[in-house]
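User: quick one, fold this
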Amino acid sequence: MADKLVVVEEKYLYRIQWELDDGDDLGAYLCQSEEDGVGEPPTERSDWEHWTASQAVRTSEGVTIDHIGARWDSQKQATAALRVAKEALKQDRPMPDWAKTALAEGWKPPKGWKA
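Assistant:
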């Protein structure tokens, strides 16, 4: 099993966090540092995945970034951002804003679609 992104509830708010491959531990939050999703993407695969997912959610509806990371007030908004982050991880380049908005609204990309 590989690491995956999950929505976690914390004191009436929601965050997206990595669930580590053993299934028992949680890892980093998206946007937990100021550099996550900003600037040039890293070359190491695991760092690139975190950077890419963070970059994808930075502009999602309802997002607030605090000292812990990205957070949402509603589970619906966090789940929509999670869909965008997961799709971003399948791409070879950053997704355009229209695709992020469409994914958040429930659009399902056709098989083989690339940004």
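User: anything notable?
Assistant: Strands lie at 4-10, 13-19, 26-29, 64-65, 70-71.
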